[in-house]
């Protein structure tokens, strides 16, 4: 709220509630208020809250293969069934890492425990999703991922967020949850939003939550997982990567 200075600096006027003689006080504008301004939501931003914990998806799923081609995704159980029918070995189809999944649109989708990145978003958003997928299912380990290589047999909350951001070349060293409170830009992002306080950190990416906590998640599983959005994100500082 802006303060209007009037009068000639009389010492009496500097006292709380004092008004210098011969001065005129102007009434405060009717719109003046101490209520904090509502947070700015970028146009077309992905949601960061949801009343539903249902993340089921039944639409088409694609995969970016090693050659960079986008092809229809074939689930591992379907691959195994096909190989068994032809007498081949399922081990021959095994590939290092987890698939780079894609779905049409601007929303990430939950596919067999992994997240499928939306096709119509910037590449760094997709890379965040694909990087996070590599550690999904690992156990929660306090301090996990907080080293120069970002690698660990398990991850804590901020280590998980750091690993995902590092996958898109947005972070060169892991941050803890307190450091994320001042990382990047303030407020909600269009596709990526980070929530942090001194005790915890998690991240929403294109409509899915990457979190080690099972809050608002019926699975009740701890460790790095893709989860439904929280019903609310109170008590957290909200930040986002610049431009995302």
Task: Annotate the secondary structure layout.
Blueprint: E1 62-64, E2 70-72, H1 76-86, E3 100-103, E4 109-111, E5 114-118, H2 123-133, H3 157-167, H4 177-180, E6 185-186, E7 192-196, E8 201-205, E9 208-211, E10 225-227, E11 237-240
Parallel strand pairs: 3-5
Antiparallel strand pairs: 1-2, 1-3, 4-5, 6-11, 7-8, 7-11, 8-9, 9-10
Helix pairs in contact: 2-3
> What is the N-to-C succession of helices and strands?
EEHEEEHHHEEEEEE
Report mean pLDDT, rounded to a whole number: 83
Q: Any guess at the CATH architecture?
A: Alpha-Beta Complex
Gap from first CA to last CA: 31 Å
- Beta-strand percentage range: 15-25%
Q: Based on Cα principal axes, name the global outline.
A: globular
Total strands: 11
The gyration radius over C-alpha positions equals: 25 Å
Number of discrete helical segments: 4
Summarize the structure.
The chain is 15% helix and 17% strand.
